[in-house]
Amino acid sequence: MTHRGMPSARGLVLVALALAWSGSLAAGNRPDFSGRWALDAARSVGLSPSQPRDVVLAVEQTADRLVVHRTAAGKSATTTMLFDGTEVVEREKGITVSKRSRWAAGALVSVGTQTRSMLGASIVLSFTEAVRLEADGTMSVKSTMTGGGKERSRTSIYRRAPNMPPR
């Protein structure tokens, strides 16, 4: 998922832009991501060597938004996705993330950009993220980031973590 201040964990499969903006799920058919989730690094694909493996997500879902509180390597960050496609802009430590999210084909899909200011220059990456509940009860977060002529994809798998202390 895209998280402020933690670009290496902004993980969420390339979903075509047409899919991202095609049809919405009826409110009653949307998956409920609420709860606590722990990264299953062994089942995840494409994680960078520098990505922490102790990632825990505390997810709050309402009728119009998803708020994700992420903790990893002793640091925390929060990100919000609005279901109606309204742009969300989050800034922290020289990084600006701008995204729009919508329901598509059973997933919450976000499309946006991440801009970093470094040494007086701006580096802009485009991303697509898709979050879905899988048949086995896990949550998959598939992401693709593109920039500088390169593309990087990752699938992070999270399992429910019911016995974890509250955040």
Please tag this protein with its features.
Lipocalin, 1 helix, mainly beta, 10 strands, 167 residues, globular, disordered N terminus, 3% helix, ten-stranded antiparallel beta sheet
SSE topology:
Elements: H1 17-21, E1 35-39, E2 56-61, E3 65-72, E4 75-82, E5 88-92, E6 95-104, E7 107-118, E8 121-133, E9 139-147, E10 150-160
Antiparallel strand pairs: 1-2, 1-10, 2-3, 3-4, 5-6, 6-7, 7-8, 8-9, 9-10
Would you kindly provide a written description of the structure presented here, covering whatever features stand out?
With 167 residues, the chain is an all-beta fold. It has a single domain (7-160), classed as Calycin beta-barrel core domain (Lipocalin, Beta Barrel), CATH 2.40.128. It contains one helix and ten strands, in the order αββββββββββ. The chain has one helix at residues 17-21, and strands at residues 35-39, 56-61, 65-72, 75-82, 88-92, 95-104, 107-118, 121-133, 139-147, 150-160. Strands 4-3-2-1-10-9-8-7-6-5 form a ten-stranded antiparallel sheet. The protein is globular and about 45 Å long. The two termini are 18 Å apart. The model is unreliable at 2-26 (pLDDT under 50).
